[in-house]
Amino acid sequence: GEDVEQSLFLSVREGDSSVINCTYTDSSSTYLYWYKQEPGAGLQLLTYIFSNMDMKQDQRLTVLLNKKDKHLSLRIADTQTGDSAIYFCAESIPGGGNKLTFGTGTQLKVEL
Amino acid sequence: DTGVSQNPRHKITKRGQNVTFRCDPISEHNRLYWYRQTLGQGPEFLTYFQNEAQLEKSRLLSDRFSAERPKGSFSTLEIQRTEQGDSAMYLCASSLASGGANEQFFGPGTRLTVL
């Protein structure tokens, strides 16, 4: 079955890098996504990576994918207080309309 | 450029009542998804449409739930005879089906509280 796991909390100091980790179980995933959710709000798509890539960089965000270990990470460089939110990884399985299976989310707290 | 919109943003109802939510997707998007999110959890897939056709329903979608997308544009999600366990955030997303990443863009959600 599909299962996506994340650690629940991460606390970092402003200006440091944050690394949020995710493991997934379905090896047929084609795309993996990172979403950000602020309190009371919907989900904002941050970035995604295709399964045949091992790294993608987009400004302050770096996504690393280890397909062998089914491990995905999101690195946020120079973390700011505005980055405080819940971060979800999600996988998309081919077929079935590419519905997303989400992890439980990692709450990132950025301290001054 | 307008994103995905959902109405109402909040709904409080008594157990046993019917509720209906609306989602307006990004205008050129042909796929529309409904997800449910409970406190402390990630969103869970409920159903999706490609144009006006409902192509998949999750087993989470009991027979009290019905979704429509009559003209392939906006969609409604109705819950009949609401139960306290239906309390959740209901999220709508839309995408443009292609051979690529099929990025899904989410609306702000409708928070349902069943008393």
What report would you give on this structure?
The complex is a heterodimer of chains A (112) and B (115). Helix content of chain A is 0%, strand content 56%. Chain A has 112 residues and is an all-beta fold. In chain A, strands 2, 4, 5, 9, 10 and 11 form a six-stranded mixed β-sheet that branches. Chain A has a five-stranded antiparallel β-sheet with strand order 1-3-8-7-6, with no helix packed on it. Chain A starts with a strand and ends with a strand. The mean pLDDT of chain A is 92. Chain B is mainly β. Helices cover 0% and strands 49% of the residues of chain B. Chain B has strands spanning 5-7, 10-13, 19-24, 31-37, 44-50, 53-57, 65-68, 75-79, 88-95, 105-106, 110-114. In chain B, the strands form two sheets. In chain B, strands 2, 4, 5, 6, 9, 10 and 11 form a seven-stranded mixed β-sheet that branches. Chain A binds chain B through residues 4, 31, 33, 35, 40-45, 48, 50, 88, 90, 92, 96-105, and chain B through 4, 6, 31, 33, 35, 40-45, 48, 50, 55-56, 91, 93, 95, 97, 101-109, 111.
Give the helices and strands, then pairings.
The complex is a heterodimer of chains A (112) and B (115).
Chain A: E1 4-6, E2 9-13, E3 18-24, E4 31-37, E5 43-50, E6 55-58, E7 61-66, E8 71-76, E9 85-92, E10 100-102, E11 106-111
Parallel strand pairs in A: 2-11
Antiparallel strand pairs in A: 1-3, 3-8, 4-5, 4-9, 6-7, 7-8, 9-10, 9-11
Chain B: E1 5-7, E2 10-13, E3 19-24, E4 31-37, E5 44-50, E6 53-57, E7 65-68, E8 75-79, E9 88-95, E10 105-106, E11 110-114
Parallel strand pairs in B: 2-11
Antiparallel strand pairs in B: 1-3, 3-8, 4-5, 4-9, 5-6, 7-8, 9-10, 9-11
